[in-house]
Amino acid sequence: MMEDDVTSLCKCIVWDLDNTVWDGICLEGNVVPRPDALEAISTLHGRGILHSVASRGEAAVALEMLKQQELLGYFLVPKINWLPKSTNIQEISTMLNIPLDAIAFIDDDPFERAQVGFMLPEVRVFPAESAAQLPALPGFDPTTVSDVAQQRARLYREELERKAAEPAFANREEFLQSCDMRLSVRRAVSADLPRVQEMMSRTHQMNSTGLLLSEAELRETIGVNTKELFVAELQDRFGSCGIIGILLMDTLAEEWRMLLFAMSCRVMGRGVEKAVLFALTERYRPAGLTGMTALLRETDRNRMMRTMFQMSGYRQWDRQEDGSIIFKLADSHDLTLPRWVRLV
User: Is the pTM of this model over 0.90?
Assistant: First the structure.
């Protein structure tokens, strides 16, 4: 991606260190942090944008310097070694489960920028002197900053702890049962709307329709008696994940229709999405309702949503003129809650 091609929201910035975050070469002695880089890191951290490192050098030395400069806490899964930076960025993308087109890379060296741009064309690449301008770019300025956004680095650290704990268990299900997951699905209230809007704009992989509403439109929506907005919150033994799912339901017809179902990518692979649909149907479906349907507008990034609906008992039923697929919950499907999730 070209340096001026900033359209979608950036979720993680990967920083070089020497002559980018600080002036000087770490292995050659003391370094001086760059005020413009520090201000950008702090500002973007407050907006919920994550930071990581892909830098050449000795990890122990650089990490100690980051610690001395009180910067280490900003950076998740820092990669400091002699591997190509494109390789390190790819690993950061995998470890954080953030797609490459939601990652930016900033480096003082034109060769390193060119190498990353060639190997990973989806990544946005910037020279070190652009640090001060990053917070003003559209892709780095989310329209809504929720309480969850301000805790995003902590939430990702807890997710990394989960991943690190799993190998100690005999199998995946045993590990999931040990997590003590507690799920709440409830009707949204006004205080939830910043997070709901944030999820609408940030979530692409687990997003059924891509519906995007402003906070004002959301307030109008939840004030209409033919619409129901639900939020799903998750906790486990590692901490609170906050609101990780949203559902907007059209309740006018005899068959409720899911206009939007979005889930945080942080909880993918735990069966939580199936638990959310179970909780919605079992707790909120009124007596006499003839069915539950869901819209799916397929994109290159949300293909897993089709599989998710099918595994949760929904079957393709019809297709709208715009190409959207209508799924319907099969009457014969026996809804079940994953054994490792507890509803609260």
Answer: no
